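2024-03-11 09:14:02 DEBUG pipeline.ingest accepted 1 chain
2024-03-11 09:14:02 DEBUG pipeline.ingest length=182
2024-03-11 09:14:03 DEBUG pipeline.predict start
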Amino acid sequence: MSLTMSDYNGLKAGDLAPDFTLPGADGKNHSLSNFRNTKAVLIIFMCNHCPYVKEKLEEINRIAKDFKDRGLVVIGINSNDAENYSEDSFENMKALAQRGIEFIYLFDETQEVAKAYGATCTPDPFLFDGDFKLIFHSRIDDPPGLEQAKRHELYEAIQEFLDKGQISIEESPSMGCNIKWK
């Protein structure tokens, strides 16, 4: 396991989110363009086996539940090489989703979506406004390994954006396992 940080050489603030159509753990195909009538879209590159993702799942679920009625859509995307990392297979994604995922969970088998976004680690969150412009690319909360997060930065940023239309919280790179490239 290699600890990797978010890369800020890809999408920049104000850049449009690349569109995609990917299969979901719910058995449906989902396209980013299907969420045009939302206030914000949170896309988190993640996977099933990463310990850094596992410790953040409860917080991701809380974000999805707390802000759903305020117009936020949360999308998890697994871009890991499932052939060499069987825990991240589409079947295992479905099993994880059935155990309590509160958000849309998609499989990027070709890894083209992760490359288009410049995602590098799991979890790697990207927050977009209703026009799909990048407004926040930062970690979920305190650095990995803390038993209890002291500050839930992503939650606060989403809340501030939905309340005030802006985000004053400084971005800090996410850290986690590297995406397992083919």
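2024-03-11 09:14:41 DEBUG pipeline.report The first strand starts at residue 3 and ends at 5.
2024-03-11 09:14:41 DEBUG pipeline.predict end
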